[in-house]
Design a protein that fits this description.
The complex is a heterodimer of chains A (321) and B (456).
Chain A (H helix, E strand, L loop, with lengths): L8 E10 L2 E11 L4 E5 L6 H8 L7 E6 L11 E4 L11 H11 L7 H11 L15 H13 L5 E5 L7 H16 L3 E6 L2 H7 L2 E6 L2 E7 H8 L3 E6 L7 H5 L4 E6 L5 E6 L5 H11 L2 E6 L4 H11 L14
Parallel strand pairs in A: 3-7, 3-8, 5-6, 6-7
Antiparallel strand pairs in A: 1-2, 1-4, 8-9, 10-12, 10-13, 11-12
Chain B lengths: L9 H16 L2 H25 L6 E9 L3 H15 L8 H6 L6 H6 L7 E9 L5 H8 L5 E4 L2 H5 L9 E3 L6 H22 L4 H8 L7 E3 L5 E3 L2 H35 L3 H5 L4 H33 L8 H28 L3 H15 L1 H4 L1 H6 L4 H6 L6 H9 L8 H29 L9 H9 L2
Parallel strand pairs in B: 1-2, 1-3
Antiparallel strand pairs in B: 3-4, 5-6
Helix pairs in contact in B: 1-12, 2-12, 3-8, 10-12, 10-13, 10-18, 12-13, 13-14, 13-18, 13-19, 19-20
Classes of the chains: A alpha/beta (321), B alpha/beta (456).
Chain lengths: 321, 456
């Protein structure tokens, strides 16, 4: 909480309409200071529109948006923003561009160059300070854009699809940097439709579809909530020989052979003790692996989006005519 | 639609202005166009007289003049002989030539830019009753420079008649030589005709010659400066065109850089640090410095030219200072329009459809330059001074080197109207810019632009 006693970002009943389409409908959202929250949703779900409204780039039709208890326009120096549609001055040198952005964010000229150099090394871009932006690869440019958002080490970092288009190596570098920033106390709010990264990074996830919020919970809680009560047993031999004995274990409701022919999924009864079932299975049959079934965020995403009317309509840009 | 910016941070605006300035000025295109070109122009203007001199092809050969008594041929030979004796006199003024009792035929050479041409022509006289067929063949074969047939009645009729002298030249004869021969023979005919009457030609010429006037302006510091009506008409045009070029180059650049920032998607990154109005202000201020540099470089060439022509005092200091005021108003008006256009479109091709109508208005000062310079207090000048955004350009035409004083109420009134229009256009551009920069897709219609301007 800040001096106003409010979270870093607070949206209440926010609505934005483009023509006849509700880009964001009655969205309530709270991002506590120091938290790392992911805004998830399929393409066109309204993520970028919501973020642009938080950044005061576009005005909500109704509802209230507060950043650190005030208007984002007054807090620009405390916010780092990486937009989904991002770019650089192509002919500008990397160092000049970052110094320019740093100055715009209120950093003093003194020490700015060394700060830029440090940050470039931190994201594994040493030696490009004199290169022109257009000479960099797309992934390298994306890192430079990321640095433009975090160079001034803001209190709130808003990242719209920060990892899209990055190869796994570069994505890993940025994820590590985001984690470091979070550990140093920054509030991070990022949008993505890459569930693996969200699962890896975010303490909390907010899922929106068709402009409406359909999920807002701690990531671990979501995984647990949507994981089936089942035990997965991978056998040394073919499953067909063991399916009968595993199905008869106390607490097992049904046993289903998986497509690979070696794995059996044991659905548990409501009163079953999962640990007991696992121990019994291990004792009864030679097994390679016995574990509790765990849903991925990706599976949760697909399931929820499907339940709530399927994939979003045509992608909406926050300010597209 | 777009939130109002809270606060206006001058420091951030100047950071944007600095980048805008540097990204425009430190480019090959600008250095060539705004600095190298005027310098080259200056050098070329200075070198032209040197390049033009001593390169005239000599005129050498024989002319045959068929006249009734040889008087025309004799007079023509006398003229050509004078040209041979003093080739540099060919380049003198008409008055100089007359004063030397030379022939005005040489005006033709001067008008054709052939000062200093060596003329070595021998005149052969034949009777105009002779058979000229062989001589015509010689002309055709380029053995003769020309054959002139002077009708008898040109010399004998009293009063003189207007018969025509037939002048035959080879097909490859240069027009300047033909003009020289023509004028020399016509003048020789006059000389012969007058001498027949026993009149003193020199005296007669002196009697009919109109005296010159030597107009000079008494300057404020009491000295005399030269006067040229032609220059007085061109000076305001020069100032206006200078302002037009400086204004439009920068405003066009403003439009281009805005489109580039939109297309390269850097605009949203910038807007995370600045409000749209701050960004617009920074860009306009940055390009104003670019415009000022252009004004300084081209203006220096112009002022040096005026000083060279000893006409610097034609534009009083007050008019120079007012020129800067008019320039500032013109720049901010045009820059606002171009920034709004740049923000509303996604590429230069789309921009043309919006710039077109604006440009057709902005061409008006170029079209009315001469009528207004000739009559700076007329209705056209007075009314157009009050029409933004062309008002400042018109006022520059009227006040710099004006041949008639402009009523003070018109200057003050135009200032007020154009100041108000400048603020209005900046405000409207700001309204359009804050929405336009985040827009993608097809360009807006003029009605949509109006809606943006009215949006909260």
């Amino acid at each position: 909480m800040n001096a106003h006693g409010e979270p870093a970002v607070l949206l209440q009943g926010v609505r934005k309409r483009f023509g006849s389409v509700d880009a964001v409908s009655n969205l309530d959202l709270s991002v506590g200071e120091g938290s790392l929250v992911g805004l998830l949703g399929p393409n066109g779900a309204g993520k970028s529109t919501a973020i642009r409204m938080i950044m005061s780039l576009i005005r909500a039709d109704s509802g209230s948006i507060r950043v650190f208890g005030g208007d984002a326009l007054d807090m620009k120096d405390r916010i780092g923003y990486l937009p989904e549609e991002r770019g650089v001055y192509r002919r500008m040198r990397v160092g000049e561009f970052l110094e320019f952005m740093g100055r715009l964010k209120g950093l003093p000229r003194e020490g700015l160059k060394s700060r830029v150099e440090q940050w470039l090394e931190r994201v594994e871009l040493p030696g490009v300070i004199r290169a022109r932006c257009q000479e960099l690869s797309k992934g390298m440019q994306q890192k430079v854009q990321f640095l433009a958002a975090v160079l001034h080490e803001p209190d709130l970092i808003v990242l719209d699809e920060p990892f899209s288009g990055l190869d796994p190596v570069n994505a890993r570098v940025l994820i590590a940097t985001v984690k470091e920033l979070h550990q140093s106390g920054r509030t991070i709010f990022l949008s993505t439709h890459q569930m693996a990264q969200a699962e890896q990074l975010c303490e909390r996830v907010v899922l929106i579809n068709r402009g409406e919020k359909i999920l807002d919970a701690q990531t671990r809680e979501v995984i647990e909530r949507y994981s089936a009560r089942a035990v997965i047993v991978e056998l040394v031999e073919r499953a067909s020989t063991a399916i009968g004995s595993l199905g008869s274990i106390d607490g097992v409701d049904s046993a289903t052979e998986q497509e690979d022919g070696r794995t059996i999924s044991l659905a548990l009864t409501d009163s079953a003790d999962a640990r007991q079932v696992m121990a019994t299975a291990l004792a009864a049959i030679p097994c390679r692996r016995v574990e509790l079934s765990r849903a991925s965020l990706d599976e949760v995403f697909v399931r929820l989006v499907t339940e709530h009317g399927g994939h979003s309509r045509q992608p909406l840009q926050g300010a597209t005519r | 639609m777009i939130p109002k910016p809270s606060g206006f941070r001058l420091g951030r605006i100047m950071i944007v202005a600095r980048r805008e300035f540097r990204s425009t000025v430190f480019t090959k295109g600008f250095i060539l166009g705004a600095i190298a070109f005027p310098l080259a122009m200056f050098v070329v203007v200075a070198l032209i007289p040197l390049l033009m001199s001593d390169h005239a092809v000599p005129i050498q050969g024989t002319i045959v003049i068929a006249d009734s008594d040889g008087s025309v041929a004799a007079a023509a030979q006398a003229t050509f002989d004078r040209m041979l004796d003093d080739p540099l006199s060919v380049g003198g003024s008409a008055q100089d030539l007359l004063d030397k009792d030379s022939q005005p035929a040489l005006d033709d050479l001067q008008s054709l830019g052939d000062a200093g041409t060596i003329v070595n022509v021998k005149v052969i006289r034949v009777s105009n009753t002779s058979d000229l067929i062989a001589l015509r063949a010689d002309v055709q074969a380029e053995r003769l420079l020309a054959l002139a047939e002077v009708p008898t009645d040109l010399l004998s009729a009293d009063p003189p008649v207007d018969s025509v002298i037939a002048l035959l030249v080879p097909s490859n004869m240069s027009p300047k030589s033909t003009a020289l021969f023509s004028r020399t023979i016509r003048d020789a005919t006059v000389v012969a005709r007058v001498e027949k009457t026993g009149t003193d030609l020199k005296k007669a010429r002196a009697l009919v010659r109109q005296p010159k006037t030597d107009a000079a302006r008494m300057t404020r510091d009491g000295t005399q400066a030269s006067e040229s009506l032609e220059l007085r008409l061109f000076i305001p045009g020069g100032f206006m065109i200078l302002m037009w070029i400086a204004t439009f180059t920068s405003a066009n650049q403003l439009c281009t850089t805005t489109i580039e920032e939109k297309s390269s998607k850097v605009i949203e990154v910038l807007l995370s640090a600045l409000s749209p109005t701050e960004l617009l202000a920074g860009k306009i201020v940055g390009q104003s410095f670019v415009s000022a540099i252009m004004l300084a470089t081209y203006g220096s060439v112009g002022i040096a030219t005026l000083a060279f022509a000893t006409m610097l005092d034609v534009v009083p200091l007050s008019a120079m200072l007012m020129f800067i005021v008019w320039f500032v108003l013109a720049y901010f008006m045009v820059a606002s329009i171009m920034a709004a256009v740049g923000s509303a479109v996604s590429d230069l091709r789309e921009a043309q459809s919006l710039i077109g109508p604006a440009m057709s208005v902005m061409m008006i000062p170029l079209l009315v330059w001469l009528p207004i310079s000739e009559n700076p207090t007329g209705w056209l000048a007075t009314i157009s001074s009050f029409i933004p955004p062309i008002g400042p350009f018109i006022m520059v035409l009227r006040t710099t080197g004006a041949i008639e004083p402009i009523p003070a109420w018109q200057v003050i009134g135009s200032l007020i109207v154009n100041f108000a229009a400048t603020f209005l256009l900046i405000w409207l551009a700001g309204r359009v810019f804050r929405i336009g920069v985040l827009m993608q897709g097809k360009p807006p219609t003029p009605l949509e632009l109006l809606r943006w301007a009215r949006a909260r």
